[in-house]
Structures are given as C-alpha cells and as structure tokens.
Amino acid sequence: MELNNVKDVLEQDVLIVGAGPSGLTLAIDLARRGVRARVVERGEALFPGSRGKGLQPRTQEVFDDLGVSHAVREAGGPYPPMLGWRDGQPLGTFQMIERTDPAPDRPYHEIWMLPQWRTVEILYARLRELGGGVEFGTELTGLEQDADGVTAQLAYADGSAGTARAAYLVAADGGRSTVRKRLGIGMTGETVDPTPTLIADAVIDGAALIDGAALIDGAGRGPGRGHWHVWQDAKGGAIALCPLPGTDQFQVAAQYDDPDPVPDTSPEAVRRLIADRTHLAASDVREVRWASMFTPRAAMADRFRADRIFLIGDAAHIHSPAGGQGLNTSVQDAYNLGWKLGQVLRHGADQALLDSYEAERLPIAAGVLGISTRIHRAHRAGDAEGRRRTSEVHQLGLSYREGPLAVDERNDGEERSQLGAGDRAPDAPCALPDGTPVRLFDALRGPHFTLLILGDAAPPAPDADFGGLAPTLGTAGCVRPIRAGGPSPDLLDPEGHLTTAYGSAPALFLIRPDGYVCWASVGARVGPLLTH
After folding, report:
1. 301, 175 contact by CB (below 8 A)
2. Mean per-residue pLDDT of the chain
3. Is residue 425 within 8 Å of 400, Cβ to Cβ?
4. 515: number of CA atoms within 13 Å, CB side?
5. pLDDT at position 201, please?
C-alpha cells in the first residue's frame, strides 16, 4: 500500500519523525524485528546532498548486520590522498586519513566514502524490501503523550491534516528538530568556528582538473579524480574538491576567512567561487546539483528521552563535519535504540531497558563531539598532525563498560585490560566443524542475542539470569548459543584468532543484538533465577 495515501489515525508501535540516516536505520531494525513503525518525513524526497560522506568502520559493521553492506561497498570507495595546490601548481600529496591495516578482529578497517544521498537511497531501498516505507511531505505540527502512548498531529503536502497514535515516538528530524523544541529540551553547546562553510555537489569538466601525481611525473593532464584537491591558501578562504565515488561529481567545501558574509549558494555563485579560488574557470563547472551553508557548531540535547519520546541523530547532537562523526554517531544511536524497543514491544523486556538508551548514548555523544571539535580547530589552525583522522574516529573502541547493561562476573583482576562487558564484540575468522571458513560475525548477524561459549565452559541453565540482566533484557527465547571449541562445537578456532580476541577458555559472553558484550563469566559462576 502507498503510505502517502494514508490520512487517518494509524495505531503503530513506533512513530519515527525524519527519514535521514538515523530514522531509516531505526526503521530497518524495527522492521526486521516485526515492530510496526510509521516513518514521516517533512521533505518531498530523500536528502539530495553529499554532506556526510564518510562511513566509519563501526558503521560499516552496523550496515553489514542490517543487510546493506554489499550495496554500500559497491557504491562507495576508499578516501583518496590529498593534493595541495597554489597558483595553479600542485604542491604534492599527503594523507589526511591515517591508513590502518586489515586485522582479524575487524572486517572493515578504513573509512569508506559514500555521498550521504546515496547512503539514504540504499537504506530506503532496504526498508522497502522489508515492507516498510516513508510518508514524504508529512510534517509533525504537534504532539502530546500520556501513560499509554504518544499522539502526533500531522500536516500533509496537499493541505490536509491527520493524527497518528503510537506507543513510542522517535525524533530523527535533524538539528532543528521540531520534536525537541516542542518538548522544551534545550541544546547546550558552542560555535566551533564563527566563519561559515559552503558545501556543494558539482559536476566538473574532467579535462579541466589536473591529476597531481600525473603532473608531478610529467605525464600531463588527467581526469583529476584520483585525489582530494585542496587550495589551503586561496584568497578568501580554503577550498577543497573531493571526488565522490560512483558518481561524476565533486563535493565542494569552501571555508570563509571573514565571518560576516552569508555565502551565496546559487549555482552561478558556486561557479564563481570555484573560479575565484582555484585554477579552474567557471565554465569548467558544468552543473551544481546541490548547495548549502552552515556555521560549524557542537551542541548536545540536555536529555535524549522524555517519557515515551526519544531523540536520535542530529536531533540529539550536532557536530562539526571534521572527523566524520555526525552521521556515524546518528546511525549508532538508532542501532542502540532499535533492539531495545524491539525487546520491550515484542519480548516482554522491562521498560527500564529503555532508560539505558540515554545512559549509554549521551556520554558517547559527548565524547565524540569533543573529537570533532578538536579536529576542526586543528584544521583551522594549520596543525597538520592534529587534523589527521586516526583510528580514534573509527568508533570501534567506544564502550558501554560504565553503563547499566554491563555485568562482568570474572574476578581475576584482569578484566579491565581484556575484552569485558560493555565492549564491542570483536570479529574473528573461524571454521565450521567440517572446515568451512566462516567469520564470528556471521553467527552474530541478526536481531538475536548470542551466547558465546568458549571451550568446555558449562553452559548457563535455561533459567539463567545473566548476572541479573535477564528481566531487563527480556532474553527468554531470544538467545542463540554458539560453542567455539570444546565438546560438540559449532565453531572451531583453527588459527587462534577467537582466543586472541576473547581470551582463553573456559569463558561465556552474552552478546547483545547491537554487537556489544553485556555479560561475561565462566561456566561455574552462572546462577539460575528466572524461568523462560
């Protein structure tokens, strides 16, 4: 059915306001859990710009689990080296992205470039595959909540109005969130940089750009798409042209030295800007497909939850684009919240589980905001080392150890230095008993909990409470046991990668649906409490 034609009251489990990366990620996760979600989007179509173009390794793991990894890999590409320019001459290449080698514990080891418009297209296509959709041209104009749910007033593009009723509402409606404002939740933060930035997507004549490496080697003119071109000392402010993989476009990013002017985002003005600051002519810019401007800010909502309403993505935190953290943090907000809503709505988990969303994500967002701000200011100050994107931006090391869903029952004094409850569950190349190669992430993929049993550790009793977490998590019927090694194994560890990542047997790890360890123990220390 065409959701845009639905104008009457719909009873839903979750109403998602906003169809950006976070809203679509949440909708996909809920759809695969059988949770009824309705997605409304004020715009008439998906976001058209390339703005958030960097997918960090942790986000790539999330997309793998959600079934879009193949499409993301096909459409995107690695970040190219940077090439500096001055007075029409190349200054040489350099790396802004610190390159890391592949490792057994992480299937994705580098930032993957994909324009945001393509990311949301891929996510939207996946949502449609799962039977979901988006109501475009539908704006939230009011809301109220009670003990049983949330009622939202909606305005449609044709001038009509409607009402939606859901058990929960999730605001994924961006930095100017209508939902957040109507709830009266404040944003605390600062202006990272008083000068504005223009960002645009442009098609540039391939013969007009000189591939820097080719010119340095004396090979002459080339297509120029092998480098991220930068004019750091351009009059009026730095400008960069980044080739967007899988397209004929470049992302244009122009900073302004003067904080007063309001950048003109019209196509002709963007052409003039490129001509003024580079060796290209305005006529070399064949088309400007999208343009926008912003003043870099770092801000975070004072709360991420108000009873039955949750804030995710830019509605909860606003980042400088430096370091590529905003979109990625937004996706992981949704991934954190999705399984918790699913457990409460479909598996009888205690509603206290939903309290853990803010408890876990708010401190993570605060820390990531600090990274973005530091990198942005280092870039503006000309600090070449400080602006480098190191592995800290990959988000693989983010942990919920201090959160309410982390119980480590090992007391050998070494748990702080090894994989523990609250940490991301690492990957590992393994094998099936018949020798067929398989990765641990293949076993974790899906909306279930995974109980990883190492060696001959005694498995928990059917009514195990997992360190007191079982009532909150609603684990009954949702746990898939996987034994690695020991008697009758499901997986083998022929090269020892699993042991390197998880430690020696015997041991037990309960891994959440979002890929974090929530309970760690040894077989002898499991105490039964609840009956499934």
Report:
1. no
2. 88
3. no
4. 27
5. 97
